[in-house]
Amino acid sequence: MNAIAQDAARQLETAARAARAAAGTIARAPSPVKDAALHAAATALRARTDALLAANAADIEAAPGLTAAFRDRLTLTPARIEAMAKGLEEVAALPDPVGRVLAEWARPNGLVIRRIAQPLGVIGMIFESRPNVTADAAALCLKSGNAVILRGGSESTRSAAAIHACLVEGLRAAGLPEEAVQVAQTADRAFVGAMLRASGLIDLIVPRGGKGLVTRVLEEARVPVLAHAEGLCHTYIHAAADHDMARSILANAKMRRTGVCGATETLLIDAAIAPSLLPLLVADLRSLGCDFRAEERARAIVADLPAATEQDFATEWLDAVLSVKVVDGIDDALAHIRRYGSEHTEAIVTRDESAARTFLDGIDSAVGLWNASTQFCDGGEFGFGAEIGIATGRLHARGPVGVEQLCTYRYHVIGTGQTRP
After folding, report:
1. pLDDT tens, 380-417?
2. Contacts of 104 (CB under 8 A, 6+ apart)
3. What percent of the chain shows pLDDT beyond 90?
4. What pLDDT score does 394 carry?
5. pLDDT by residue (tens digit) across 215-250?
6. Is the CA virtual torsion 256, 261, 266, 267 positive or negative?
7. More confident residue, 186 or 351
């Protein structure tokens, strides 16, 4: 291990031991105290808007050559700062997940057994570029009784530090330990490696970012991982779709914010309606600045569409580019999604309820939508106040990760003097 890696490991161990000590206090903190910290942090975010914008401007200036999508993810605006503050308040308004009775049953021997929700402990959050994740992750971890160590992208270090200062102000105001929410003091990648090896110090790693980050975490982690999905999302326009609805939904799903993981990356459209509807969809999106990659059948309908390669359908564009394919019904659409999708979010637009049910039952993704934009899978739209990614995988929670998903459970067993025979 070289000197840089050793220094990162020491920093991580110091931070993690402090976080574990704080986690005990946060786990036992009454809900009104945690909520007071979140409200005070929201107040601080609003009061320090100018300082946050200045820090963010310095981050952007220090990172020239950004793509439009990356710049959008990195940028803070007054509206986005207000959204962060509201997110903290919305998390505070949620029921406290800690101490919930998840199940209760009685045994023939008279014992009563209760399954009780409890915090995980110390969470390590690794994310890229989007500084608002600092506030979202801290809020969800605090509400669920966990401590958190945050390591954001090197491009957003100043922004994350300014947001963290507001969170610390909230913790202080509520009399909670500042070490409950920590931000890595180094942008060196060695710190990420130290987090991934911190078995016994960190209880769960949550990566939020591109495929490269998630792959590295899954390959190197010696700590349990709640994996965040790459956002290769599809919108399927079924033969029974309302054309005006389809046009409105697709324009929003692709172009509202192209750099978020809930943005639609591939349009699948039924052959039965493609000749009449696809030209309108292309015109709508072109007017918004979108480019395309289309397979042969789509190009036979709209001749000037650029040709798609095999790799294009496996690409999460995170930009104003849309892959397009004409399909022969639901089974064909589902086969394409199974081959190229990332199990994040898929949508169907149709007036046929039976078709919608078949599609939703046939996907293996964390979220399926019927007659709604895939962009609802970004930014806490599920009523969780905030979310720290879309979890995928068959062996753990799936979908947006909120306060309930950041709890585990223990058992309380109540007897009346029983002894084991």
Report:
1. 677 776 666 666 554 344 667 889 889 999 999 999 99
2. 112, 113, 114, 115
3. 77
4. 44
5. 888 889 999 988 766 789 999 999 999 999 999 999
6. negative
7. 351
271-303 as b/e: b if 16+ CB within 10 A? eebbeebbeebbebbeeeebebbbbebbbebbe
Report the distance separating Cα 128 and Cα 126, nearest Å: 7
Query: Would the pLDDT of 65 be above 90?
Result: no
Q: What percent of the chain is predicted at pLDDT more than 70?
A: 95
- From 122, 125, 140, select the one nearest 191 (Cα to Cα): 125
* Separation between Cα atoms, residue 41 and residue 273, nearest integer Å: 51
CA distance 399 to 367: 6
Q: What is the pLDDT of residue 279?
A: 98
Q: Are strands 101-106 and 112-119 parallel, antiparallel or unpaired?
A: antiparallel
Instruction: Check: CB of residue 345 under 8 Å from CB of residue 233.
Output: yes
Distance CA(142)–CA(136), nearest Å, equals: 10
For residues 330-340, average pLDDT: 97
Kindly report the average pLDDT of the chain as a whole number. 92
pLDDT score for 299:
98
